[in-house]
Design goal:
about 170 residues; mainly alpha; two-stranded antiparallel ribbon; two-stranded antiparallel sheet; 7 helices; about 50% helix
Length: about 170
């Protein structure tokens, strides 16, 4: 995830998780404190593991809970940050990419920022998951993906099924 804004990258993954109906329903059950099955299905266990990896949920030995520390860090970070509209931030409106820079150097910096927010070096997400994460930044996910591949920021598997970080940092 991004070194500059690790919390922002984490919340992009939360948004991607919320887009998944099964993950959203499971999170709702944890938040409501009801509806959690005694023996979750394989799919539910996988979704709980994703929420735990993202950092939003944690298992305290007795059950699943919201990670209050993540919420505290997020609120502290948000209140400490100033509205920085310099550097690549001038191309963003909040987390959304307002305009793709025309200058190649600026465009490369923006794409590195987005890439680092949506994928970690150890990951090889399938295209669908990458698309969920990119959609947080811009509706034209194919354009972002294509530019990242063209800039060697992402490498696409030979069969086209997954992506990993490239050497074009």
């Amino acid at each position: 995830m991004s070194e500059e804004h690790p919390i922002a990258g984490q919340w992009i993954q939360v948004a991607a998780g919320l887009k998944n109906p099964g993950m959203r329903q499971l999170l709702g059950a944890v938040l409501a404190g009801t509806g959690m099955p005694a023996e979750p299905s394989k799919s539910q266990l996988k979704d709980l593991a994703r929420w735990e990896k993202i950092g939003l949920l944690r298992h305290d030995g007795q059950g699943w809970q919201v990670n209050e520390q993540l919420l505290e860090r997020t609120l502290s970070s948000a209140s400490a940050q100033k509205a920085d509209r310099s550097g690549i931030q001038r191309f963003f409106d909040g987390p959304r990419l307002a305009a793709l820079p025309a200058k190649p150097g600026d465009r490369h910096e923006v794409l590195v920022h987005i890439r680092d927010a949506v994928i970690s070096p150890a990951e090889q997400p399938r295209e669908e998951r990458l698309n969920e994460r990119l959609r947080v930044f811009h509706p034209d996910i194919a354009l972002l993906r294509r530019y990242m591949v063209d800039h060697a920021l992402l490498l696409r598997a030979a069969d086209g099924s997954s992506y990993r970080i490239g050497s074009g940092a």
